[in-house]
Specification:
about 475 residues, 8-stranded parallel barrel, two-stranded parallel sheet, globular, hydrolase, GH, Glyco_hydro_1, beta-glucosidase activity, GH_1_N_CS
């Protein structure tokens, strides 16, 4: 695969503030969504599928691993030094909104929070690591959830605009690459994470989710415009959770069903954020599901003017589906539904492993939009065993990443313009979907366990040295 990856390709790793920082009460930070999510797979999955979560903490009943996470808040220098040792060109991270505006609706920001990210960006600059910053990554301030009902409320557009204006002005000389909303299209499946509300009932879920999405489209467009004004030369992208949808068989009923599901899940948000308009296919869906979006005058013009510069995506799995499926046919682990694909193996958490799906995803996206793409999340959550000598021989992770990087190379050969690749959870972190430390993704092992015990010590896994060589050879040696 000689010289497939372009010069300047941005190799690196990805995290989110709520999954690594900890220090949840320090530096003037206010509570956010992640702070009230209990640990443990059953607890998290129940929250995602249930209605009426009250956003309260019960420390007698649950653990809250995001409160400490892996303590990046105090250990960022050590962690960034390890990223630099691997040769990272970029580091994807997020800013915790409630570090900057503890409640979310204040008029003045929290200086201590702003200063923390100054220190992080300065540390990255020391090693010539380009920050790639997600503005909103499942970190809605708790006050905005409890007081306003999350993104269902139009007022959050104003609060977000204030937050964005502050961070763009503060970091304009330090950050060039920005993403607006993490996995924005996942919001209808998981409104709790993306939109900061728990549906009151199934009847209102779709209406409230698409109304909240409209507010995020407006907020994203404003952020793009502000970014281009405040930071000349900045690049601001959207971020999609992308999963190609395969028809279970060649029955035209199932092919049509899969096509429509793919348009709704993979393309609706992309069409709005990249093309700048609501796509035609959504009209029928809204009509058939009694969805009525309240818009203000000028919203559609603003969305048209505030289109993103590139598309970033997370890719973990594909989805296989059919029109009429029985409960027995459902895929057990895939968070986005569908039926089991007989041709694919699954991870320890039941996520189907499909490297060729990434090749397909990149071709579909580039074919539809012709804007640069950036794979900003991809990785394998797995149980890691620490050997007596302290090593972690994670060949399964190396195999997974090798095949996905190979798939990116094939997509580049097919003409796809790809900016970079940031492996998810480059250092072990708290899983968003399961609230576990034992679901490990990192090249770097963190001694922190599900029960809260551990030294927080960092150590290099076998994959650390492998990825270091991948970067050093610009993807030529896999």
């Amino acid at each position: 695969m000689s010289n497939v990856f372009p010069d300047g390709f941005l190799w690196g790793g990805a995290t989110a503030a709520n999954q690594v920082e900890g220090g949840f009460h320090e530096g003037g930070k206010g509570p956010n969504l992640a702070d009230v999510l209990p640990g443990g797979k059953e607890n998290r999955l129940k929250l995602l599928s249930d209605t009426g979560f009250d956003f309260e903490m019960d420390t007698d009943k649950y653990t809250y691993p995001n409160h400490e996470a892996i303590d990046f808040y105090h250990r960022y220098k050590e962690d960034i030094a390890l990223f630099a040792e691997m040769g990272f060109k970029t580091f994807r991270m997020s800013i915790a909104w409630s570090r900057i505006f503890p409640k979310g609706d204040e008029l003045e920001p929290n200086e201590e929070g702003l200063a923390f990210y100054d220190r992080v960006f300065d540390e990255l600059a020391k090693y010539d690591i380009e920050p790639l910053v997600t503005i909103a990554h499942y970190e809605t301030p708790l006050h905005l959830i409890k007081e306003y009902g999350g993104w269902r409320n139009r007022k959050l557009v104003e609060f977000f605009e204030r937050y964005v204006t502050v961070i763009f002005n503060r970091y304009k000389d330090k950050v060039k690459y920005w993403l607006t909303f993490n996995e924005i299209n996942g919001a209808t499946h998981m409104p709790l994470f993306g939109l900061g509300f728990s549906p009151e009932n199934e009847e209102t879920r779709l209406q409230d989710s698409f109304q909240g999405l409209h507010h995020q489209f407006v907020a994203s467009a404003k952020a793009v415009q502000l970014g281009h004004e405040i930071i000349p030369g900045s690049q601001i992208g959207c971020m999609l959770l992308y999963a190609p949808v395969y028809a279970y068989d060649s029955n035209p009923e199932n092919v049509l069903y899969a096509k429509k599901e793919s348009l709704l899940f993979n393309n609706f948000c992309g069409d709005v954020q990249v093309r700048g308009e609501y796509p035609n296919f959504i009209d029928r869906y809204f009509q058939e599901n009694d969805i009525n979006i309240e818009m203000e005058d000028g919203d559609l013009a603003l969305i048209k003017e505030g289109t993103v510069d590139f598309i970033s995506l997370s890719y973990y799995m594909s989805r296989t589906d059919k029109k009429n499926k029985t409960p027995e046919e459902l895929g057990q682990g895939n968070l986005i539904g569908g039926v089991k694909n007989p041709f694919l193996e699954a991870s320890d958490w039941g996520w189907e492993i499909d490297p060729k799906g990434l090749h397909i995803a990149l071709m579909e996206l580039y074919g539809r939009y012709q804007v640069p793409l950036f794979v900003v999340e991809n990785g394998l959550g797995a149980y890691d065993k620490v050997e007596e000598d302290g090593s972690v021989n994670d060949d399964y992770r190396i195999d997974y990443l090798r095949e996905h990087i190979r798939a990116m190379g094939e997509a580049i050969k097919d003409g796809v313009e790809l900016m970079g690749y940031t492996a998810w959870g480059c250092i072990d972190l708290v899983s968003a979907s399961s609230g576990e430390m034992s679901k490990r993704y990192g090249f770097i092992y963190v001694d922190k366990q599900d029960d809260g015990s551990g030294s927080f010590d960092r150590s290099r896994k076998k994959s650390f040295y492998w990825y270091k060589n991948v970067i050093a050879t610009n993807g030529e040696e896999l």
